[in-house]
């Protein structure tokens, strides 16, 4: 659903898309919260997933185009870093609140999520649509938008960054949203309680680091920054295959910190090069492609972890990530050695 919804956002407007995104997400979670049968939970999740797909790309595109309309797009790295930092803080807060809500009533966290999206729905009506590169919706324009949006990724200014972008975001998504993160933590003898504390602490520390992304970008070129982050991510996975016990915190910190820092940095690099009329479509294309590694690897990873081979899996992921970092360094060798 990622790419089609991004194209709709570019054609009908980011504001309308965000209104629809919050409406679907609120409705989906309300159905999950009230569900009495399995198929109701599945239907509610699919509706919420559609809402997330509409949100993906549209919010970021609206933020960049709003700044661009005011000729302040140079401040986008500050805006996206602050947004990511606040998001992490609220994620940690809501996770802790969710524990209390769940102990009170197992449906309460889902109702809370639905209510939160409902508040977002109300606030979405107060957004102002940037008047940049707007087009009338038609099926002809829609299918053209899909093709042109994907094609933007391969323009000269972006294509050399693609291996790094897809490796970093893809591997981090695979780590964060599947069972690899808890399995890796369990390998270090960190179980439910320890994981809750460790990942909350690492997220808060990373949120503080994200605040300094604009400062880092004044010291490092984007090529240098993304190559360093990709290399660090690969090292984190390699170390996870060698470390044990509490020393495993080093590997977890490198992976979590790198992944969280990479998100706003990649966003700046990509948004800077995209024309407004294809922005949401292209961002949604990136969001889709970065989920592909998880889709391809999930079953393989599950079997390896079940067979006690998580070390071998982590070493393979780390090695492949470092290979991509080398390829990215070769593609960007002209930019890597430039002074900032």
- Kindly state the number of beta strands: 0
What is the level 1 CATH name?
Answer: Mainly Alpha
Please identify the structural class as seen in this structure.
Answer: mainly alpha
Quaternary arrangement of the chains shown? Answer: single chain
Task: Provide mean pLDDT, rounded.
Answer: 89
Architecture (CATH level 2) name: Up-down Bundle
Query: What separation lies between the terminal Cα atoms?
Result: 38 Å
Percent in strands: under 5%
The value of Rg in angstroms is 20 Å
How many separate helices?
18
- Specify the CATH homologous superfamily: MFS general substrate transporter like domains
- The third-level CATH topology is Growth Hormone, Chain: A
Short description:
This protein has 340 residues and is mainly alpha-helical.
Could you explain how this protein is built, in words?
It is a single chain. By secondary structure, this protein is mainly α. The protein has a single domain (2-336), classed as Growth Hormone, Chain: A (Up-down Bundle). The chain is 81% helix and 0% strand. Helix 5 (76-104) runs antiparallel to helix 11 and helix 5 crosses helix 14 (248-273). The two termini are 38 Å apart. The relative contact order is 0.15.
């Amino acid at each position: 659903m990622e790419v089609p919804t991004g194209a709709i956002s570019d054609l009908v407007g980011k504001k309308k898309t965000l209104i629809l995104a919050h409406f679907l997400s609120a409705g989906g979670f309300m159905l999950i919260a009230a569900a009495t049968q399995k198929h109701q939970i599945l239907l509610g999740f699919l509706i919420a997933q559609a809402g997330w797909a509409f949100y993906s790309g549209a919010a970021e595109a609206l933020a960049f185009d709003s700044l661009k309309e005011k000729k302040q797009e140079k401040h986008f790295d500050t805006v996206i870093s602050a947004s990511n930092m606040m998001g992490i803080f609220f994620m940690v807060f809501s996770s802790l609140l969710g524990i209390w809500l769940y102990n009170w009533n197992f449906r309460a966290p889902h109702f809370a999520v639905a209510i939160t999206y409902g508040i977002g729905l109300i606030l979405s009506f107060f957004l102002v649509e940037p008047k940049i590169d707007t087009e009338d919706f038609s099926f002809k324009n829609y299918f053209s938008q899909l093709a042109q949006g994907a094609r933007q990724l391969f323009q000269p200014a972006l294509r050399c960054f693609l291996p790094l972008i897809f490796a970093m975001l893809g591997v981090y998504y695979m780590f964060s949203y599947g069972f690899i993160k808890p399995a890796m933590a369990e390998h270090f003898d960190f179980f439910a309680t320890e994981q809750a504390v460790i990942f909350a602490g690492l997220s808060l520390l990373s949120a503080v680091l994200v605040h300094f992304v604009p400062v880092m970008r004044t010291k490092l070129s984007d090529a240098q920054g993304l190559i360093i982050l990709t290399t660090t991510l690969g090292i984190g996975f390699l170390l996870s295959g060698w470390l044990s016990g509490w020393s495993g915190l080093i590997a977890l910190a490198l992976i979590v910190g790198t992944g969280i820092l990479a998100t706003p940095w990649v966003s700046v690099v990509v948004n800077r090069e995209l024309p407004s009329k294809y922005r949401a479509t292209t961002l949604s294309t990136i969001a889709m492609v970065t989920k592909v590694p998880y889709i391809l690897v999930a079953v393989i990873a599950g079997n390896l972890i079940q067979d006690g081979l998580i070390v071998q899996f982590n070493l393979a992921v780390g090695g492949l990530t470092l290979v991509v970092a080398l390829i990215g360094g070769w593609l960007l060798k002209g930019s890597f050695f430039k002074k900032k």
